[in-house]
Amino acid sequence: MKTIIHDLGKEENARLLAAADQVVCADGRYAPCQGCFKCWTKHPAACEMKDALHQASRVLGNTDDLTIITENLYGGYSAPVKNLLDRSIGSSTPFSTYRGGHMHHTLRYGKRNSLRIIVYGDMTDAEKNTLQLMAERNALNMGFKEHSIVFCADAEEAGRMA
To answer: For residue 66, what pLDDT is reported?
Structure first.
């Protein structure tokens, strides 16, 4: 299954669905992660908060190929995309293992194929370097076998890259 997470606005959902099985718009209309870890302990992979991201861990955990389209925010994801990814922590477990020579949480759903990050907006070289490192570390942490990152000038170009 291929999933696209984006911050381009809901009007892009229909067009992006042509390139994926599932599209999740990070529109910011949901609460941030509260850090309660009930998605790990009380009801695994389901968030305690009953909003649009209640099943985010299951959605992201079951995807084989994930594309994230995000505006650059100081060398990181936009706030709505970061919030969505934070709310999907239940796709891992509270237990730890070594992957890539580092300690990481055990994956609840197993390994996945590819992570592709498309970043748009103004960026310095330092921000690009930070984004490249973040893509590498996120891919390892989330259990993706491969990853890539694409830099675009604006949101329109980023949307076409999906």
So the answer is: 97
